Every structure is written in structure tokens, then in C-alpha cells.
From TrEMBL:
This is Na+/H+ antiporter. It comes from Amycolatopsis speibonae. Residues 15-412 form the Cation/H+ exchanger transmembrane domain. PANTHER family: SODIUM/HYDROGEN EXCHANGER, SODIUM_HYDROGEN EXCHANGER 7. The lineage of its organism: Bacteria, Bacillati, Actinomycetota, Actinomycetes, Pseudonocardiales. Keywords: Antiport, Cell membrane, Ion transport, Membrane, Sodium, Sodium transport, Transmembrane, Transmembrane helix, Transport.
Length: 541
């Protein structure tokens, strides 16, 4: 037991040290952690073996749920056709392209087994790409597409993978049956996600205590995943749908203190799990290499080249081809206009290049490959399992390290940068609108609450001072580029809580109308959360 604890502590130490080094070097944490894991795998001593069931059932749900909580349901919905194109259709095309090419060029690999590999390597893991993109200022519209793709593609890939694997180990294939199973898995996952989100919403009305809310939050992804898999739906899709809905509803369902605490908890959970996962990826090298001794070198090279080549080429080809479709099928990448509607336009060449290089693969690919059984239903060895495993590992290594390191420089060369001045202007407009709402609420409270005159005057002065600051910032942005209890205390505190709530409601109206992106909403909401958290709780709260 002490040895296990020591090993875990050592991994935690590595994660923290590597994180500090990566920030100094300007490299994404996942890339450096994978390289460290590779180096450690070559040294004498114990290695952690990747257990597919542990990754899929324990690590994947919280990672997906946290990503969904931080995504924008409105932004994904506004670009739904593009997200579906990347997370469903592109995954299908990649899986069958890899499968067909491998069976054609490497006959020792049956079609079903090859498609299972194709499904394993098809879904990108956007962690590394988004880490780099946010650091260099990737435009929000491209970040939304990458986030949306990463949320939904795992469900698509794992569903195809399970079907292909069932055929490969001794079953029969029926297109109608496969289509029906895919539809049922999708519908089941969607329904479970909605139900779980509804139950969480009810629980939050009852459990106002931040610790209780956090406990429910930590249990939610596992509940959604288990329930989804139990009814033979997509557990992955259930987790994502629940996370998107709950993330959208959280501003109205949680108190400021609860939101701050939940955000801190999930940031820590995500940081540790991602660090563990990428260290684990690197440590699988010995297990992957060990099984290649019985294959001709030519077969190993050909299988690896075909798999990696197909993964790298299908994505840009798909992005280019979709731009030739009718306009109604184009990626919806336009900015919101004054009515909140997203304008449609095709991807530019620079955007295609940027999105093409954002297809880094990760732990889902390796977990699926390691989950391929050693034998088929009749007890015979699974055809070319070690070749498939090696190819999947190489895809992860090439995309995660190769694309992860070069993604930032590519974005800079392409000039794909977020409009920082426009974002700052929008946030200050929302701040100003929230202050107007707070001042209006204050006037109502003068008659409704027994608030001392001096408290009212102090709050009005504070709000008007902040309003002047925000309007001054807006004017600057327009003209310049960005570079012990006293009597009445309880009523005053309640009034300040109410004023903060009025600002929140105004910000939510901006968000719901499509005028304020969720990312900007969270920044402004955090400011209000900190302001509210600084207040002493009143008895009436």
C-alpha cells in the first residue's frame, strides 16, 4: 500500500513540475507530459498498464462533463450543422476510410477489425489544441467548433467501434440492425442526459449548501454514464448532454459562493485527471512494442503509414469538400449580428488550415485500441491485434506531440487571432447594462426595504462610480486599440445581494438574446460572484 501511495505522489509531483516547466517553455502540458511518460517508459522500473475499462468508466466521464460545463450550448446550437459535420460525419468517414484502406493494402487485417481501428483513431481529443489555441488567442468561433467536435465525436466513434468489434470477434453484420442500434444509442444517450440534467436542477433547488451541490456535481457524470450504458444507450453522449444543459442552467440555479467553489473543484479534478492520462499514454510504449516481433517489418510500416496518413489527410479533405456543398450546409462561422443571429459563410483557407491541424488524438484512441480482445468468440487470436495497437499508439504520438507542438506557431503564421478589443468592448457594454439594472433595482428597494439612507447613498455612489469607469473604458476602446453589526446592516446586505442579482439577470438576458457569449458571461459573472462572496451573509438570505 505504501508503495502505491508513493507512486501516486510521485506522479502528482511530476504533473505539477511538468506543468510549471511547460508554461515557462510555452508548450502545452499534454505534449510535455506524454514525452515525460515516454522517457519514463524506457527506464527500468514499474510502469502503469492502461486498463481500458478504468479509462472509459472512471476517467472519461468527469473529463467530458467538465468540458461540457465550460462549453456554450447556445454557441454550439448556432453552429450545429458544422459541429455535426465534424463530430459525426467526419468520424464516420475517417473510420471507414482507415478500415477500407487497411483491408485493401494489408490483407491480413479483416475489414471489421480495420474499421474498429478506424473508429478508435477517428475522434480527436481537443485538449492539447485548445490549450495552445487559448494561449495564442484562437478566435472564439473556431474554439466553439473544436469544443463541440470534441464533446460529441467520442460517442459517435465508440458506437461504431462497438459494432465493428462485435462483428470482428464472431458476429454477423446487418446494415439495418447497425443503423437501428446507432439510432437507439443516440436517442438513449440524449434522453438520459436530459433526465439527469432535470434531476440535478431539482436537487439544486433543495440543496443550497455549496458542499452538497459540489457532491452532486461530482456524482453527476458517473450517474449519467452508468444510466446511459445500463439502458444500452450512449453513456458518453448522456454525460455530454447533461453537462451542456447543466452548464447553461448553472447561472440561474447556483449561488455565487456555490459556483465559485464548484468551478475550483472541477478545475482541480480536470487538471489532475488530464495530467494522469497523458503520463499514462507515454508509459504504454513497452506494451505496444512487445507484440510486434511476429510481424514482417514491411507490414508494420505499411499499417502504420496507412493509418497515420489517412487520419492526417481525411480531415483537411473533408473540410475542403464541405465548402463545396450548398450554402445551407456550410460551417456557420459568422459573428452574431445585432439580432443575435449568426451569419453564415464558408470557411476561409486559413480557417481550414487551422482546424485541420487541431485533430490531436488522445486517451480515447488508446483505450479503445487496448480494449480490443486478445481472442475471438471461437478462441482464435484476434487478427493483427498488435499491429492495430501499434498503429493507434503511433497516431496518438504523431498528432499529440507533432501537431500539439506546431499548432501554436501555425496559428500565429496564419494570423488566426481573437479580436481582443471587440471582446473587451462587449464585456464593458454588458457591465454597463448590468449597472443600469442594479441602479433601477436600488430605486425599487428604497420603497420596498427599510434600508438606511446612508447605505443607499453609499451603494448608489459605488454603482455610479463603476458605471463611469465602464463608460470611460468603452470610450477609450472606441478611440484606441487595446493595448460588528450596526442598525440596518441586515437590510443593507440584503439590498446589496439583490443589486448583484439584478446585474446577473441582466447579463443572462444578454446571453440568452445571443448578444453576450458564454465565455464573456462567465468572466463577468465571476466578478459578481467574488463581489457577493465578500459580503457577510444576512439572516434573511
Amino acid at each position: 500500500m505504501l508503495g502505491v501511495i508513493g507512486f501516486v505522489l510521485a506522479m502528482l509531483g511530476v504533473i505539477v513540475v511538468v506543468g510549471a516547466i511547460s508554461h515557462r517553455l510555452g508548450l502545452p502540458d499534454p505534449v510535455l507530459l506524454t514525452v515525460v511518460g515516454l522517457v519514463y517508459a524506457l527506464l527500468p522500473g514499474p510502469n502503469l498498464h492502461l486498463e481500458p475499462e478504468f479509462v472509459l468508466d472512471v476517467i472519461l466521464p468527469p473529463l467530458l462533463y467538465n468540458a461540457a460545463l465550460g462549453s456554450s450550448l447556445l454557441a454550439i446550437r448556432s453552429r450545429l450543422r458544422s459541429v455535426v459535420s465534424l463530430s459525426v460525419l467526419l468520424v464516420l468517414v475517417t473510420a471507414f476510410a482507415v478500415g477500407g484502406l487497411l483491408t485493401w493494402l494489408v490483407p491480413v487485417i479483416p475489414l471489421a477489425a480495420a474499421i474498429a481501428l478506424g473508429a478508435a483513431v477517428a475522434p480527436p481529443d481537443p485538449v492539447a489544441a485548445l490549450a495552445v489555441g487559448r494561449r495564442v488567442g484562437l478566435p472564439a468561433k473556431l474554439s466553439t467548433l473544436i469544443e463541440g467536435e470534441g464533446l460529441l465525436n467520442d460517442a459517435t466513434a465508440l458506437t461504431i467501434y462497438k459494432m465493428a468489434l462485435a462483428v470482428a470477434i464472431g458476429g454477423s453484420f446487418s446494415f439495418g440492425l447497425a443503423t437501428g442500434e446507432f439510432a437507439l444509442a443516440t436517442i438513449g444517450g440524449l434522453l438520459v442526459g436530459v433526465v439527469v440534467a432535470f434531476l440535478v436542477r431539482i436537487s439544486r433547488r433543495v440543496l443550497a449548501d455549496p458542499l452538497s451541490a459540489n457532491a452532486v456535481s461530482l456524482a453527476t457524470p458517473f450517474a449519467a454514464y452508468v444510466l446511459g450504458e445500463t439502458i444500452h444507450g450512449s453513456g458518453v453522449l448522456a454525460v455530454v448532454v447533461a453537462g451542456l444543459i447543466i452548464g447553461h442552467q448553472t447561472p440561474r440555479l447556483q449561488t455565487g459562493a456555490s459556483r465559485l467553489q464548484t468551478g475550483a473543484v472541477w478545475s482541480l479534478v480536470n487538471y489532475l485527471l488530464e495530467g494522469f492520462v497523458f503520463l499514462l499514454i507515454g508509459q504504454q510504449l513497452p506494451a505496444v512494442i512487445a507484440g510486434l516481433g511476429g510481424y514482417p517489418v514491411s507490414s508494420v510500416i505499411l499499417t502504420a503509414v496507412v493509418t497515420v496518413g489517412a487520419v492526417l489527410l481525411v480531415r483537411p479533405l473533408w473540410l475542403v469538400l464541405t465548402q463545396l456543398f450548398p450554402r445551407r450546409l456550410h460551417a456557420r462561422l459568422g459573428s452574431a449580428d445585432e439580432t443575435g443571429e449568426a451569419s453564415e459563410r464558408a470557411l476561409t483557407g486559413k480557417e481550414i488550415a487551422g482546424l485541420s491541424w487541431a485533430g490531436t488524438r488522445g486517451v480515447i484512441t488508446l483505450a479503445a485500441a487496448f480494449a480490443i480482445p486478445a481472442v475471438t468468440a471461437d478462441g482464435s487470436p484476434f487478427p493483427a491485434r498488435d499491429l492495430l495497437l501499434f498503429s493507434a499508439f503511433l497516431v496518438v504520438l504523431v498528432t499529440l506531440v507533432g501537431q500539439g507542438v506546431t499548432f501554436g506557431p501555425l496559428l500565429k503564421r496564419l494570423g488566426l487571432r481573437a479580436d481582443v478589443q471587440d471582446q473587451a468592448r462587449l464585456r464593458n457594454q454588458a457591465r454597463s447594462a448590468a449597472i443600469d439594472a442594479a441602479l433601477a433595482r436600488l430605486e425599487q428597494l428604497i420603497d420596498e426595504e427599510d434600508v438606511p439612507d446612508e447605505a443607499v447613498a453609499a451603494m448608489r455612489k459605488n454603482l455610479e462610480g463603476r458605471q463611469r469607469r465602464y463608460r470611460a473604458r468603452l470610450a477609450y476602446l472606441e478611440d484606441n486599440p487595446l493595448t460588528p453589526r450596526a442598525p440596518g446592516y441586515e437590510a443593507a446586505v440584503r439590498a446589496r445581494h439583490s443589486i448583484i442579482e439584478a446585474q446577473r439577470e441582466e447579463l443572462l438576458r444578454w446571453r440568452d438574446a445571443g448578444r453576450l457569449p458564454d465565455a464573456s458571461l462567465r468572466i463577468l459573472q465571476t466578478e459578481l460572484d467574488h463581489e457577493e462572496n465578500a459580503l457577510m451573509p444576512s439572516s434573511g438570505k
